[in-house]
Amino acid sequence: MDLQIIWFILIAFFFTGYFILEGFDFGVGMLLPFMKGAGEENDRRRTAAIKTIGPVWDGNEVWVITAGAAIFAAFPEWYATLFSGFYLPLVLIVIGLILRGVAIEWRGKVDTYEWRRRCDTAIAVGSYLASFLWGVGFTNIVRGVPLNENGRLDSFNDGFLGLLNPLGLLGGVAFVALFMLHGATFIGRKAHDPLRSEAHAIGLKVLSPIVLVGGGIYLLWIQLTIGEGLTWIPLAITVLALLATVLGLARGNDKLAFWSTTVAILGCSIVLFGSLFPDVMPSTSAAFEGWDIYNASSSPYTLKIMTWAAVVIFPVVAIGQIWTYWQFRKRVRV
Q1: Positive or negative CA dihedral for 33, 34, 35, 41?
Q2: Which residue, 1, 95, 179, 240, has fewest beta-carbon neighbours within 10 Å?
Q3: How far apart are CA 290 and CA 292, in angstroms?
Q4: DSSP string computed for 240-287
């Protein structure tokens, strides 16, 4: 197999891991405004929800850093086009991540209800902003953007305003809804009642119908306009996983619900990256044919060194993160 294909698969793997792990972090943050109760009771529920992700959220962000570094080293032309043309939305994503991260870390620094409420608002805003823009950005990467004769993108007219097309906006909403559902199943997996039953109710009665309808339309749109023949398989798996999520929530089966949303995100990611391959930045203009895994890649020698480095380093990082999840596997209480 070509090293270009291997590194495309690895980058897809890193982003998929990020969407699965950081997805429930975003989801928990976006669910904070919907916690029941008033005053101190509401504060205790939000505190317990944040404790479910407290030990792991910062480690989950390592996946996107790794994915970005892999793009930079393996496909420098993809990196140059993406990070220049999508400059404004990427900056807004970083602002959302900073806002959320600072709020999580500083939430317990001042022991007042008002301070924690403001931090919770920042966590929710940062989570919504990042989730929505990840959906908009990735949808447009797969859909294609109007590259000029140099293979670059106008960073404002096309790289920001151009991303806000109907399919891109639907992708943003689909990412937000799916991450919220994933966050609800994660709270159900990690919290005791009453927070667990509250998350189940939100996931079953509110989020599941939105994800099934909105997400289904989004994936069908992608598949019918951009997708390949084989991507029908992960699309079908995604739909079945969402139906299994509904079943798990209805029966109070935390494991089934959480692992089903995990499979749904995995299937959605495979549809997106499968529809993108072998391109990395398709062009919708006649001025440039677009970047693919071959004309955007580094030299074979660079890819060889990166491959050996990944073989040595990645297992160590993965073992460390698995150990962290195992150490903090117990449920939290309100």
Answers
A1: positive
A2: 1
A3: 7
A4: HHHHHHHHHHHHT-HHHHHHHHHHHHHHHHHHHHHHHTTEEEEB-SSS
238 closest CA partner among 268, 199, 211: 268
| Position 332 in a domain | no
Domain that holds residue 289: 3-327
Q: What does the pLDDT look like over 117-154, one tens digit per residue?
A: 999 999 999 999 999 999 999 999 999 999 988 888 87
Residue 54 lies in a domain: yes
Centre a 10 Å sphere on the Cβ of residue 312 and count the other Cβ atoms it contains. 9
- pLDDT band with cut points at 50, 70 and 90 for residue 160: confident
DSSP secondary structure of 128-150? HHHHHHHHHHHHHHHH-B---TT
d(CA 193, CA 81) in angstroms, rounded, equals 48
Condensed to tens digits (0 to 9), the pLDDT of residues 34-59 reads 988 777 888 899 999 999 998 999 88
Domain contains 333? no
Which helix H or strand E contains 324, and what residues bound it? helix 300-327
Round to whole Å and give the CA distance between 12 and 269: 8
Domain for residue 334, yes or no? no
What percent of the chain is modeled with pLDDT above 70? 98
Average pLDDT over every residue of 248-258: 95
How many residues are given for the chain?
334
